[in-house]
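Chapter review: from sequence to fold.
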Amino acid sequence: MNSFRIPEMAKQYTEYDMIQNHTDLPEFPELRTRLLFAFLSGSTKYHTSSELYSLAASLVQLGLDTHDQVTPSNEQKEKKAARSRQLQVLAGDYFSSRFYHLLSQAGQIDMIKQLAGAICDVNRMKMSLYTKMKQLKVTAEDYLHQTVEIKSQLFLAFSEVMAEVYDQTWPEILQAYSKCEVLFEEIFRIESASNLHGSWGFWHILQHGTKEERKQLHADEPDHAKIRTLMHKYHISSLLYQMLETHIKQLHNKIGQLDSDKLVSELFHIAEPFLRFLSKPKVLEDI
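The token string follows.
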């Protein structure tokens, strides 16, 4: 099938009353799933598996993202908060298990192994980044690079099946889109000064700020007005917009080099939300 209906297919696994009533789920990984589907649909060998692989990958990613929302400790004693945390753990496990069920029913044992290995890689990369962040050994560039790697790693598990035509193109295009997606998310993240901690902007200020400014970032109860002042001083929003615009241009150049008109058209379509966002009037810090 050429029509992209993976989000609708996934609803049979995600739209359970208990989950919806007691906890929030992360955003469906539509961009990377749509990207995977577009490449697989153009493959002679894997065209018929495009929906199965894309659905399985999206559920695994949703499971990983759901687990990321779980708080590190259960300090919240309220019954409602505790139930939400428990359901996040269970929901993440459930979504992750569905890929095994779907692929095993289809006899896709090799792909199960590929995705299982990718899950291990993603968790290892997350722990590595978390450890470096705790030790304050991360630069803004490190943070962006490693976050993009984490976001794209699961879908890189399909690199072998892309070898038929897109052995080099798939990883490059996937990571290019993932970088745009990360920058897009970072821009929205810093709309509130309370969300700065741990973001790209946090590591940028930590890297370039004065000793006193770094102390403000680590305050037990940060002064949001002062944090907002720091964000303006170091032009965090402007820099993120500029990086997104630069990477969108680079992405368009990569897409334009492909030899499939159909795939090129679909990839430009997938990138449209970024272009619409950049075309909107925006208020940036004075430079």
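Two observations follow directly from the output. The chain is about 70% helix and 0% strand. The mean pLDDT is 89.
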